[in-house]
Amino acid sequence: MRSLSRRALLRGGALGVAAVAVAGCAAEEPEPLRAEPPDPETVLLRQLIAGKERTVALYASTASAKLAPFGKRHEAHLAELRRRLPPDATPAPASPGTPSPSPSGSPGAKASVRSLQRLEQKAAALRPRQLDGVSPALAQLIASIGACEAAHAVALSRLL
Description:
Mean pLDDT: 82
Shape: elongated
Low-confidence stretches: 93-108
Number of helices: 5
């Protein structure tokens, strides 16, 4: 029987340990980290805020004294929506289902009274669908905003 040198024995042991380590790594893949799904209410708040920001910008683009009170109400809605957003959440773009307030689709476009009236109608019609599954306090706010938007639509139709 041939005797192994100390060096050969250590080299063989190191290779065996390495082989076991590699096999162990290949056999056990770490589970991917899964992010918590976003809170549906926070997602909705982000969408509402993004929509209100665009609406406020459109009213501001008109520079009309007659339309200034409408814009101020939307600014108040925006402030209240932002107040309810959790501190660690940032506003995000509105979802595809949120009506776009831009009459021409381009940023900085001036809004006409008719386009603002249509925007208010679409927004007011959307609000009841946004009430499902939200807290009573947020549901009340969304319903109030929808009522205000419906009133805006009627008032704007009188300016046409």
